Amino acid sequence: MTRLAWGVATDTGRVRQANEDSLLAIDGLFAVADGMGGHNAGEVASHLAIETVRDEFTAAGTDVLVEAVQTANRVLVARSSADAELTGMGTTMCAMALVDADGRDAIAVVNVGDSRLYLLSDGDLTQITEDHSLVATLERQGRISSAEAAVHPQRNILTRALGIDTSVMVDSWEILPVVGDRYVLCSDGLFNEVEDGRLAATLRRLADPGEAASELVRLANEAGGRDNITCVVVDVVDGANGSDDALASGTPAARVTATRTGGDADLFAAAPVDAPVSDEPVEVEPPPAAKRSRRGRRGAHALEGPRRRRLTWRVGLFAVAFLAILGVGLGVIVWAGNNTYYVGVSGDEVVIFRGRPGGVLWIDPELAEASGIRVAEVPAASLDAVRSGVEEPTLADAQRYVDNLRDQIAEATTTTTTSTTSTTTPAPAVVPVPPAEAPPA
Ligand code: MG
Predict the structure, then answer these.
(1) pLDDT confidence of 217, banded at 50, 70, 90?
(2) What is the CA(227)–ligand 1 centre distance, in A?
(3) Which of 134, 146, 63, 136 is nearest to 100 (CA)?
């Protein structure tokens, strides 16, 4: 008969206003849920999921645990569609339970989302679950490194969660319990702050599971505590499988006797390589007025949670598309505002401006070139147009317009001069004919 000992810790962290993580630790069943949603929806989601799993689970087998998680998903979807304030709520769910597998004890593990289960065995730490997050997918596909994933700005985007859709794929494992093994269930607020080496060292150093859980939460807070932190440490303290058991003495991977995981196929198969699309949530900063709901730092059913608000992928993509269109629109406006010319008036002179008459948004026209033409010289037929601004696509076109104006002015001046000349030219003098002299007599 396998016997387990455990300790738990959870904390709001140092940034979030409330703790939306929930945890469960009863004999034989342990879970961590990390809720998401506006107002208090994340807290409701994680709490409701944990309660449902607890109520639905029996130790009959791994399938029962998987079905309990499926039921929790349906309960969340029904609740969020019935209550407008809870629309869009969701939660991760990572759970382990002692079950019967063909007459033998087994540890059943289920996972949806980016909370994790680790196994510390012979001092080595192994992550059992796979994260259902965008960065984890990109990392598994070899498109980013683990170092890039750790600081990726979109590392809060989940590709699976409970409460989002009526059907959800639940990953499951069945593991042989071995005396001396230590399991750790945690939310991302722990592993995003405490790197694996330190996590392992702490788990090796502190024998008491409660002390280990508390110390891990303390370390996460010390590192920044930017999210809610939840940790459940479970030790296998007694049972049929000692380290002398052939199967038990192998690597942690060798102890996994059954695995059913969807990997990324369910979410990304239909999406182009460079445009992963799914209906999964995006986490953004919590609203400032999140309600605080601390209920004790240690102990079973300590339910906590920072306000996590996640939007759907669809909304995220729409926002990106909208911003792109806005950016292109603004670019066109800026381009148009800077790359067009007009002939107008500055003071009493005709000049060429760069820009549009009156300006475009915040872009005022700039003086590009003076013409030397006085407004008073502009022919009457062109005066109104020049005063309101004659738009030309290029500087050369604007210069041509000004040259044309100059020609008109010159022509008008010549005509005037000619006319003046003709009117002021004195009439030919009448040359008096000298009287003919009388011929000599
Ligand atoms: Mg979290």
Answers:
(1) very high
(2) 6
(3) 63
